[in-house]
Amino acid sequence: MRGCRGATASAPGASLARAATQATETELMVPAPEITKLARFRSKPQVTIAWAKKWIGPAGGRLDFLGFAIEVPAGAVDKVTMFTIRLPVDPQGSEYVVAEFGPHNQDFAKPVAIELPFRNTTLEGSTYAPTIVWWNDAWQDMGAQITADGVRVRTLTSHFSTYGAAESNRSGAIIVSGG
């Protein structure tokens, strides 16, 4: 199984704080992401609206939301598609650099870029390399580059899931960030 295809872990917020989702006959049991391994904001954001959406078609486009972003190149989708970014709003989850990106259960014809905050997080000034990870029963290292303006970390993906920013020791191991 790849990414969120067939998985039932719910969105960040309450889901990221819970140990696991409930399984039914047609659902798989998927543990909630271990967010304590992710980077933290140096100053916890005051999230009052935790979800953004934008319809993006074959010509491509961009969705920016509170330091998180999706950049869809031309040809990545063959029809107008709703793209979403969902952030945690619970007091514990909102301090971490984590978001659920959508649409789920869709592979893109061309890789789509996602960006997560770097500046004013525990990644900034770290001796370890910043990376973006996605949840697949454990955090999977995607690699990342710091954007030219130094504000975000960026990677390419062919599908969406829950993604977070973390530190990597360059050997693929995720380092617990933010103490």
Beta-strand content bin: 25-35%
Main beta-sheet strand count, sense and barrel state = 7 strands, antiparallel
Give the tally of structural domains.
Answer: 1
Give average pLDDT, whole number.
79
Q: What attributes does this structure have?
A:
single chain, Chondroitinase Ac, Chain A, domain 3, globular, mainly beta, 1 helix, 179 residues, 7-stranded antiparallel beta sheet, 2% helix, 5-stranded antiparallel beta sheet
Description:
The chain contains 1 helix and 12 strands; from the N terminus they run αββββββββββββ. The chain has 179 residues and is mainly beta. The chain has one domain: Chondroitinase Ac, Chain A, domain 3 (Sandwich), CATH 2.60.220.30. Strands 1, 4, 5, 7, 8, 11 and 12 form a 7-stranded antiparallel beta sheet that branches. Strands 2-3-6-10-9 form a 5-stranded antiparallel beta sheet, with no helix packed on it. Strand 9 and strand 10 form a beta hairpin. The termini are far apart. The relative contact order is 0.22.
Write a brief caption for the model:
The protein has 179 residues and is an all-beta fold.
